[in-house]
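**Archive record**
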Amino acid sequence: MKCDGYAPWVTATGNTITCNSLSIINSGAFIDSSDGVSLSQNVITGANGDGILLKNCTITLTSNTVSDNTESGVNCLDGTVLTSNSNTYKSNKSHGLKINSSTATISMTNDTLSSNKENGVNANASTVTMSECTVKSNNKSNGDSTQAGICITQGAKVSLNSCSVSSNKDYGIYVTQSSSSTVSGCTVNSNSNDGIYVIQSSKATISSCSISGNENGIYLTSSATGSVKDCNICNNSSYGIYKANAAGTFNFSGNTTSNPQGDRI
């Protein structure tokens, strides 16, 4: 199916859209002021804009592929409540999933975000929970914005559980601008810059993670606070944990580290 214009544009309650292949000439799917919407097993590709644009809606996305759109795979605006399960967001020209609202709440399970030109997940001022997600090989462009597998900014609250964040150009997980993150049981490896970078009065609670093959495993600076507990931080190219003088209070316990420059805490 090839679509010109929004495909589809949903403004009603209780719609289910299943098993379509949408090759889109203009804008992608727009879900606005709707509750109980479900999109499953669709392929959404080639939009001149975001693949899926969400606003003031409650929606479930399941087993969709959203790829090769000229902006983000999914863009969540004000009032979005999104449950995302087993979707693939890949090769979009901006972010895989973009959340840009303090009134957006996102829950993701077993999603894959890969090979997007900017960040896999860009969470601004929102509340996001990710479980068993794979975020890999994002940041294929050389833009001026922060490049990370997962970028958490502008006071966002993000919880990562048992996720894999790997082979992203620049940072694995970047936490900034008074945001807070909980990173538990995650694997953060082979990102070209630091595995986890915490800055600008943000808070990070990091536990039971495996962090390897990055430049620094964890880098803390600029009034960042939090804790690092029971992590295996080994075989990074420089430091395992680097706590700059400008960082705030961090608690460290039960970690195993083995890196060329040791730790600076």
Confidence is low (pLDDT under 50) at residues 1-6, 8-13. The radius of gyration is 18 Å. The longest strand covers residues 29-40.
